[in-house]
Amino acid sequence: MRKRGRKLLATGLAGAMTASMLLTGCGSGSASSTTAADTAASGDTAADSAGETSEAATAQASAEDDIEKPEQINIFVNGNVFTQANARDEFEKRWEELTGIDLVITQPDHDAYNDVLGQTFASGPENWPDVVILSSAYYTGYAEEGALWDMTDAWENSELKASGRYKGEEILEKLKIDGRLYGFAHENSKGCITYVKQSWLDNCGLDVPTNYEEYLAMLEAFTTGDPDGNGVNGDTCGVSAAGYIAPEAPWTMYLPEFYQGATVDFTKDENGQWVDGFTQDNMKATLERMQDAYAKGYIDKETLTNGTSDCRNKFYEDTFGVFTYWSGTWGTQLSDNLVANGHSGDLVALPPIEELGNYVAKLPNVMAITSACENPEGVFKYFIESMLDGGDMQTLWTYGVEDVHWSTKAETVCGNTYEEGEFHGKESLEKPGTQYQKGYIDPLLSLGEWVDEDPGAAFLPEFTKESQEVFDANAVTLDLIPSTEVMNQYNGDLMTLKRSIVADIVTQGTSIEDGYARFEAEGGLEWSNAIVDSLNNQ
Question: How many angstroms separate the CA atoms of 74 and 129, rounded?
Fold first, then answer.
């Protein structure tokens, strides 16, 4: 790993990166039961229950017993963890019951998370928390600058690894920087899939599109016809998104049918050399497609300024028909919220159209321990490792707190009746009328096998499983893009310029030629070439 000091932490990383990228995600909570996390983290329980009684497992468990148990752990987390509105206090109380450790949670507003995190790192190590959540876009920069603790040995010597219950070895390999691991993934790679309202297809007499021509024809019908069946033509639009460039990598995930494999980020060409995707011909073709669709009204006119919550609310209000959003649990949440708003909840999880080929899976968020942590081995064991204990703690992180986020009591929730002993999500505290389906760890993406069985497996709705299956069958996971000094110096301003040019081309009708002329005139091409050179000459 390259050592370059902490200059970036006080300047570029806290400023340029946060100005150009914004971490997004979705979370809330709900489920059940088995072993105390403290017990699993400190010894043999998970390994023995899983039948892993080898001498190696026993030796590693014994080695873990020598690790000092922290009295307090400070974590800095985003809205993927239970928020105050979703009973975070109850979650914290249950975690402390299981571990006997004081948990101190700092949780900025979800949309401002990376800005506040950057400011915290820039303020000095004395103010750093023990644990932070990082997306892959930020993980490499903080790791390269020495802000994260090297957990390679802790993982290799962990009881969880020895147990054989962890299924994410390939993910951890992708997360390594110069062969060393600085963040731990509890979930598999995830991404977005395109959802189409079946009732709108039916009202317009359309089949599910399989190629771009059919996709565009569907958008036209949804925009000019009467897909919502209210008797008025032209009061809806085809598709909406949270920006033309997504707020985080993969930048293309909210409008994939237009991008068709192009990217605004750095990528490798067919020869294995790094290039800037923004400068490639396929990106220019993407801009032509988006410009044309926008001019015809197929794309929501507020796409440039939309946040994800804006898009979801418009979707629930039945103002547009095609929405690319997270696969799995969110598919059912979208459906349930449509029903709660008086509309049909029947959605199609669209396989990628021919020209797209595949959806893109982002590397998962990681839990990282800062280099300022006084007892990183203890934090790894009692916090990070314990989250996948296969029992009580994994249940807490996957589904939440019993009788708050989930229950097995006989009752009716949101019109669904459950018998005594039948696991189910409680009604959401934040979104009444819907049920909790998951907490921080998505049960469909969890990388830790349960010691006995997933207590909530039978509860997962069929469409949740279906949308995740369609995504998994058609997704390619991105590789980690290295961080270089040149990239940290220029990429924030470069991405800001790219966003501005894309907005001008799509919404203002600026020609492709004029847009790229501006890219060169304002330094974008120079910055881009410098970054490419730094990536290819590492």
Answer: 5
Distance CA 405, CA 131 (A): 24
Spatial separation of the C-alpha atoms in residues 210 and 200, rounded to whole Å: 16
Q: What pLDDT, in 10s, does the model give residues 10-65?
A: 433 434 343 333 333 333 333 333 333 333 333 343 334 434 434 544 555 455 56
Check: CB of residue 219 under 8 Å from CB of residue 238: yes
Domain with CATH 3.40.190.10 in the chain: 7-189+364-452, 191-362+480-536
> Could you give the CA distance from residue 516 to residue 526 in angstroms, rounded to a whole number?
12
d(CA 147, CA 177): 14
Class of domain 191-362+480-536: alpha beta
Please report, in angstroms and rounded to a whole number, the separation of the first and last CA atoms in the chain.
11
Please, are residues 490 and 535 in contact by the beta-carbon 8 Å criterion? no
Q: How many residues appear in the chain?
A: 538
pLDDT digits (tens, 9 = 90+) for 83-120: 999 999 999 999 999 999 999 999 998 889 999 999 99
Kindly tell me the burial class for residue 224, based on how many C-beta atoms sit within 10 Å of its own C-beta (0-12, 13-18, 19 or more). middle
Q: What is the pTM of this model?
A: 0.78
Note the pLDDT tens digit of each residue in 478-490. 888 888 889 989 9
Helix axes 524-536, 512-521, angle to 10 degrees: 70
Partners of residue 274 on adjacent β-strands: 268
Check the CA dihedral 69-70-76-80 and report its sign.
Answer: positive
Q: Which of 366, 416, 431, 425 shows the shortest CA–CA distance to 395?
A: 425
Each residue's pLDDT tens digit, 175-227: 999 999 999 999 998 899 999 999 999 999 999 999 999 999 999 999 999 99
Tell me whether residue 100 is exposed, middle or buried, using C-beta atoms within 10 angstroms of its C-beta: 0 to 12, 13 to 18, 19 or more: exposed
Contacts of 522 (CB under 8 A, 6+ apart): 497
Q: What architecture is domain 7-189+364-452?
A: 3-Layer(aba) Sandwich (3.40)
